[in-house]
UniProtKB/TrEMBL annotation:
The lineage of its organism: Bacteria, Pseudomonadati, Bacteroidota, Chitinophagia, Chitinophagales. Belongs to the dihydrofolate reductase family. It catalyses: (6S)-5,6,7,8-tetrahydrofolate + NADP(+) = 7,8-dihydrofolate + NADPH + H(+). This is Dihydrofolate reductase. One of its GO terms (molecular function) is dihydrofolate reductase activity. The keyword Oxidoreductase applies. PANTHER family: DIHYDROFOLATE REDUCTASE. Pathway: Cofactor biosynthesis; tetrahydrofolate biosynthesis; 5,6,7,8-tetrahydrofolate from 7,8-dihydrofolate: step 1/1. CDD domains: DHFR.
């Protein structure tokens, strides 16, 4: 099973402000849904809370070290990344996703094989959640698709896919 990140991050790696996305990019949300549908998603508690409900059509796995969290039926809770990865490996899928937040991305960086990054071409100065810096000597860009801003998309953005380079 391939373990992947999927994230939208600004030029300064911002991914969130007060537990919300700092932009409105409908095509990015469609890309996220199309890419993750039918596959397990692993996320931190704050990311789950920002969604407000489980993502339909996907096994939702939440990581939290706080034992006093109430989750809807069918949402799995783990307190370790290793246990959550072991659990999603039981699913009959070719790929599973880490979807945030910043701490989970940082924790999972050594384990992922692929990254889908929507690079949002702006800088978010008031961000409080960030995607970790990428050591590009370990990653190869294999695909990208550029988009310009329009009446529905405030910023230019680029879909990118990176594959881990085996050293």
């Amino acid at each position: 099973m391939v373990l992947s990140f999927i994230v939208a991050a600004s030029e300064n790696n911002a991914i969130g402000v007060h537990n919300e996305l700092p932009w409105r990019l409908p095509e990015d949300l469609k890309f996220f849904k199309r890419t993750t549908l039918g596959k397990p998603v692993i996320m931190g508690r704050r990311t789950f809370e920002s969604l407000g409900k489980p993502l339909p059509g996907r096994l939702n796995v939440v990581l939290s070290q706080s034992g006093n969290i109430t989750l809807p039926e069918g949402v799995l809770l783990f307190d370790s990344l290793a246990e959550s990865i072991e659990r999603v490996e039981e699913e009959d899928v070719a790929e599973a996703f880490i979807i945030g937040g910043g701490k989970i991305f940082e924790l999972a960086m050594p384990y992922v094989d692929r990254m889908y990054i929507t690079r949002v071409h702006t800088t978010i100065n008031n961000a409080d959640a960030f995607f970790p810096s990428i050591d590009h000597s370990h990653w190869k860009l294999v695909w990208e698709e550029k988009h310009t801003h329009d009446d529905k998309h405030e910023y230019d953005y680029t879909f990118q896919q990176f594959e881990r380079i085996e050293l």
